[in-house]
Write a structure and sequence with these properties.
Elements lengths: L6 E5 L7 H15 L3 E6 L5 H6 L3 E4 L13 H10 L4 E4 L2 H12 L8 E6 L7 H4 L6 E4 L2 H10 L8 E3 L17 H10 L8 E5 L8 H14 L4 E5 L7 H13 L6 E5 L4 H6 L3 E4 L10 H8 L4 E4 L2 H10 L4 E2 L4 H14 L11 H16 L1
Parallel strand pairs: 1-2, 1-4, 2-3, 4-5, 5-6, 6-7, 8-9, 8-11, 9-10, 11-12, 12-13
Length: 372
Amino acid sequence: MTSRPLTILQMLPELNSGGVEKGTVEVSGELVRQGYRSIVMSSGGRLVEQILEQGGEHVQWEIAKKSPLSLRHVWALRKFLEHNQVDILHARSRVPAWIAYFAWRGMDAESRPKFVTTAHGLYSVNRYSEVMTKGEVVIAVSETVAEYVRENYRRVESSKIRTISRGIDPNDFPRGYRAPSEWLKSWEEEFPTLADRPVVSLIGRMTRYKGHHEFLKIIDFLRKEVPNVRGLIVGEEDPRRKGYAQELRDEVQKRGLAEHIIFAGHRSDVREIYSITDVMLAVSSNPPEAFGRTTIEALNMGVPVVGFDHGGTGEILRKVFPTGIIPIDDCLQAANVVKNIIEQKPEVPNGHPYLKETMLRDTISIYEELAA
């Protein structure tokens, strides 16, 4: 262990929203709390402010673009690592990981940082994705991801792969939480068609794999049995994929679902939205969710979740709420399960292993172990 506090650099494309970003912010805050120096490098975003408020540092480099031009940062990163005496270099996405790997590989093996990668997803199996297995330790965010890496990258020593499931702070999503009356009043003014109706929600960025088309199919089936049901889609539109958002709106019109579907856009009041949700859907298709943060957030609050039996979603539901498991892509069965939940209101079991405290402890233990 170095005599000075450890310096840890986490690298990711941007800091706007999503599980990768949230986990990075959480680890940064805990590092600062424990007296370490935390640096985060990204192309920027709305969560930068939170990094800084917690006492971390942020370095803004354009490291998000999937382009060979991004590798221009390799030499500069090598100098940055040396100048800042970085002890742990932690890459959390593929483009930053390639920059980090080439910079790290070119340094003196005796004095360079220790290199950690986190496989946050079930990446396509190719040379480009293989960089996420180059870490001296490869963190997998779920048992699903760990098994995927073992099966598809057989050259990776199994001892290098460490499963650290993502986790939440139960206090952030307390069981039985009820939104304050002022929020409810504002919400009903903004979305009056949701008042006093069963609400089925899908929360996540508007990208194809999140399962929005499956969500629309399920609501289409469900409205025949529960005519007053409303489907709530929460998540920001990707500015690079405007066509996808329009595609969804076109499908809503085609299916005649205009009065049943509400697009709420990006929201920071997700806890309150869970509290007015009758059933959450987790229907990511291909690839499936690597973990499924919204699934465990909702379940922790006692909100039932119905999801496809694959990936991280299936992993969580099997352990916490097996009632919500449905066969992959079976939208009719999903609608039937949602209907039963709306009518019968089953209780979600209390307690689960997916805790932020555990995730932070295990991650920082790896940093300390490597630096020793």
